[in-house]
Amino acid sequence: MAKEVIYRKDYKAPDFLVDNVSLEFDLHESKTLVKSRIEFKKSNADATDCVLYADDLIFISVSMNGELLSIDDYILSENELVVKNAPDEFFLEVENEINPKANTSLSGLYYSSGNLTTQCEAQGFRRITYYPDRPDVMAKFEVTLRGNKENYPILLSNGNLIDSGNLEDGRHFAKYEDPFKKPSYLFALVAGKLDHIEDSFTTMSGKKVALKIFCNPGNVNKCYHAMASLKKAMKWDEETYGREYDLDIFNVVFVDDFNAGAMENKSLNIFNSSCALADPITAVDAEYQFIETIIGHEYFHNWTGDRITCRSWFELTLKEGLTVFRHESFGESVQDRDVNRIGDVVKLRNIQLPEDLSPMAHSIRPDSFVEIENFYTGTVYEKGAEVIRMMKTIIGDENFRKATDLYFEKFDGQAVACDDFVSCMAEASGFDFTHFKLWYSQAGTPIVTSTGEWDKINRTYKITLTQENKPTNNQKEKLPLFIPVKMGILNHEGQEIDLILNGKNLGKETVLHFTEEKTEFVFEEVHSQPVYSLFRDFSAPIIHKNKLEDEDKYFLVKHDTNPFCRWDILQQLSMDILLKSIHDEMVEVPENFIEAFRIILSDENISNSMKATLLTLPSEKEIESNCEFIDHQIIHKVRQEFISLISIKLHEEMMDVFGETYSKKEYDVSAEEIGRRSLHNICLSYLCANGEKGSIHLAEHQYFHADNMTDQYSALNILVSKAGERTAEIVLDNFYDLYKDDISGFNKWLSAQARRDIDNITDKLREIMQYEKFSITNPNNVRRLMGSFAMFNANRFHTEEGYKFLTDVLISLNTINPNIASGLVDHMCSFSKFKEENKEIILRELKRLRSIDKLAPNLQEKIDNALKAV
Ligand SMILES: [Zn+2]
Predict the structure, then answer these.
(1) pLDDT in tens, 633-652
(2) How many other C-beta atoms lie within 10 A of the C-beta of residue 208?
(3) In this predicted model, what pLDDT tens digit does every residue of 313-342 receive, in sequence order?
(4) Is 549 a catalytic residue?
(5) How many CA atoms, within 13 angstroms, populate the side-chain half-sphere of residue 414?
(6) I want to staple 266 with a disulfide (CB 3.0 to 4.6 A). Which of 52, 158, 163, 676 is the partner?
């Protein structure tokens, strides 16, 4: 059944609103009975039919105001229950049944690993019971859970626990009341055998909040990092946004089978355990850092998402863009600021930029969709965060805080639109955001070209900016965007000069408003040949093509006072070398570049983590985005050779730093120690790039003697790719033996296998999928295996065997978990720049997938878009 396209412009406020809901669950893994009592109030006087949505429910009965309705009073279909001639005010009582065990989609209420868990965003609540399941219907919920005490000793839902006790037949119950109005997508329940840790947080007004983190038995020791992160986040939100937590209790649950990373259900956050559990033996540093920010993200949603939610799913970026921006700022303040900012930009370039270049390109606030699940994207999230950041850059920190205060004050308890948020930004700052708002509706990444011209006689420096906004799949006409350009100018000694524009001194750093297709900014009193430094801290999500001479670029690598720009210009230099080498099919690395790396390695003023960041070349994915024609095998080969050459030329220096960053100190996750390990391991990877025996020996030693997963896993990946197949097999087998029973360790092993650069890789991976430990119903297993293969092993994935393999897996996933399938199909949906032979195979495989019976709407939407773009 083909689903229809829905449009943002067709939005209509709900005909009926809900004041109160009470839900009763008789929990059972294969047969859960749900009873609801919903109090409706008509909000559109002309409305007669009251519509409740449904998906995969077994209907039992419906009554109105206590009287059973007859079949003439309502229309029941697979996806709706329509109550005819509904009065102005009434309550409905509905009974239905669901089967959590048969629910492998992990949307709605599902049973896995012994627990009952829910995931309701975006439209999972209608898989639990009949309800006006849309975000602009906000109600107070009261929930009663009943279940077998032995199987489900823990019963959790949103809000405060108001009653609990024993029932007959070994059952018990718990009753929760959430005093805050919320949409149904924020409903949650969890029932199961869970261990927990406890702590508390005293809010700025002196209220003590009980904090509990629940996990599967045996994992409590891995919850402490998350608890510490939560407390940090609560404090940060008070200090930075003045937001205080609003209930007496805050529960967090970690589960193994979960589609997303986490979910911000009111006072009952649920996390994929892979994004939450950590100890030094099984988690790497990056996971520790990720946990800190994702815990923050879900907590911050309490205000930006829960208290104020979205009017419709088209407005998703209202809560996600803003909350990503909040968690990124949190990360910058509790971790290394500059390295964090660079990390976020790298993510944008690896995930969001390819989206803009694909047939699924969409604006941060899409105008239409078939399946909303397909729009939980890098564009809505990460680019959405950049749009918020730009507003802050334009109006400044103080006005931004005023504007968010106003937003919280004005819209608390409501479901609103992106326009409402921007109106607060405008009102609080007095700035006119009319033109800027184009960022919400226009898709694609602008390309900004810059040139600088010094006029020796008039002592002026003219910076010319042009922007190009290329057509995207569904949007051919584009307008120039409002682009904030944070910038400075350096004199030939590397000092920042005063910026004098139209006679006004703007200080050493300013934000230019670049709003036309082409603009010239003429700076005065520039007494010697300068160099510009533009888009500091990545002040806009654009592609910057500067026309600086290489000499000036190397000058900036050395002298730019903005760490982001130093890194970015070095990335540009790397990219130039990579693109030229791809074109010539021969790699040559200029001495200047090697010298820049050499200086970085020995510069005592650069932190270790920043050094590691500077020494990392653009990924293959980023290179692809910069190529007119994509040959994955050549890109891979060239990048590897580039690394090899650096390794040869800087062997001695890398060896020195590798030695200097060796430590026997006990593992800890301070920013300093994380930085040290990161530099140590990047040096090791350079040293081993040519498979040279002595270096491989160092990696082997590190693998077998490391006392923490960061060092061990780095060494494993280096050995797997550089030490030859025999050694690779030995360490992979050893790693499997060590960690096969640990979910996180096992997932790492899957990922390491998927990245192997070997001829029979697809046979190997198909074989792994047959292992008893591997489960295709577990999203983490699938993502670690298939996602890593497609994303990080392009050399092997972009082959006939690779495409066939992914298609076969997608066919299985179509019925098991369409949401996960939809995330993976992206890897085959953007192929216009591929080699002809690859295009042909992809088309054949996509058509094979398109033709299967009961193809899920998520897959259908993406495949149709891809085929349409051919
Ligand atoms: Zn979120």
Answers:
(1) 999 999 999 999 999 999 99
(2) 10
(3) 999 999 999 999 999 999 999 999 999 999
(4) no
(5) 12
(6) 158
